[in-house]
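Q: Structure for this?
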Amino acid sequence: MDNQVNEAIRSEIERRRTFAIISHPDAGKTTLTEKLLLYGGAIVEAGMVKGKKNMRHAVSDWMEIEKQRGISVTSSVMQFNYEGYCINILDTPGHQDFSEDTYRTLMAADSAVMVIDGSKGVEAQTRKLFKVCRMRGIPIFTFINKMDREALDSFDLMSDIEGELGIETCPINWPIGSGKNFQGVYDRLHKKLIKFSYDGDTIAGKHEVASVEMELTDPALGELIGEEALEKLLEETELLDGAGHPLDMDMVSHGELSPVFFGSALTNFGVEPFLEEFLHMTTSPLPRQAKEGTVDPLTDPFSGFVFKIQANMNRAHRDRVAFLRICSGKFEKGMEVYHSKEGKKIRISQPTQLMAQDRSIVDEAYAGDIISIFDPGIFSIGDTICDSRKIVHFQGIPTFAPEHFARVRQVDTLKRKQFIKGTSEIAEEGAIQIFQDPGKSMEEVIVGVVGTLQFDVLLYRLKAEYGIEVRMENLPYEYIRWIRALPEGMSEANDLTLSSDTRIVQDIHGNLLLLFSSEWNIDWALNHNKGLTLAEFSENE
Ligand code: G4P
């Protein structure tokens, strides 16, 4: 009996694929997500994901600021089934609501799909998100989108990805033209021509894709795409076969080689072949490192960690919701679990799962799934929750470098206590980071955020929840680095040789950091202090 139960849990976990889609705004993340959901039958018509901002706005009352601005500060998870797989897509908020949560979401994913606009190549936000994926060593798949528009040369796109991101590429398919001359792709793996036949109809699911199995040497290929295009295709694929990277699945699984797919999400071209190949190549839930050793998703009992906290869902109660990534075993509603940091048993009675904008109660969930649980104020980001039969502590979630800084001080000096309480509590939730001049008391703080919207959230919450008015002054810094090691023989950060506009601060844990106004200043500091070691992420706590 027990074996049967274990077998059932194992097969549920093995069919799970949990990934995030990363991109620069406008590259087509929403469009691709929507097409993937359509294949999974999770949505019935196009436009549902696109409209999510409005729909969320209508159904959620999470934060006043959301309503005021009509945007979403929250991220969600979309779960659907496709050909036996259970797929969890983690939404990584972009645009104005880009925040540290966007990075943290990547800590919960087992792989990432990077969407790149074929006419633009690698852009700023992709670069930032990619760094986090790289740090984790998870598989990264590339979807080069908008091939129905004039795109950059395909080889230039490959060298852009390799040069900018430092990852090898292996094109699984290769485009035949782009824009008006886009004829489709040649699938190198299955030796298949997938012909693009755009008829002006971009409605999802209606676009027909003709695919023909055909060796490149088949003379009929020329009839289908024209002799000129065939000549170019032959030349290019020969170059790829000779000088390109072979598909090495070991490198893919370590995030050292990215399988690349060309397509056009809007016209639904190349999406399904991508999905099928991706599901084949990507990983089921990965083992995670805990202090006690590796936690195996299949054989260990229930465990998970909190990667995000959504504060203030209901202002009257100051309640919060914690997002939990399940790392091993099975979770059941009403289950008694162990909160590792507090060393206490707790019962989780109302777990919910988020399908786009709707929240529904779940009875069971498995490794790979994301659930959200009510937080009476006991959870912090990075906390482990597990079965008390096997207590583990997962490595914490690193703190990511903010890019916008402001000096914040309270207007009414008599409210010092509330000011400290408010800024510290909001920082503990992970919405902002606070820094101080070393050795100084908290009369004022330097607030660092990943996305500027968080400044508004801070001002709003300090006023609404703590009754404090603050004055905020933007600071010209853009980069912050944790000091990992001082030059040999140096005992104080004050002894560092720094440019006049570089500043030493400390975080709430007492770690010392440097604030820089440009990358040039970072290089300057490193060149003038041999042995100084700086880091873009704080160490896991
Ligand atoms: P994002 O989530 O990454 O920010 O991008 P999103 O999917 O919203 O796409 C950004 C714009 O690019 C949208 O146009 C979308 O229709 C378009 N787009 C996405 N994929 C493709 C593609 O394969 N080919 C072409 N030609 N366009 C594509 P928009 O005009 O900004 O929005 P909308 O008014 O069409 O909704």
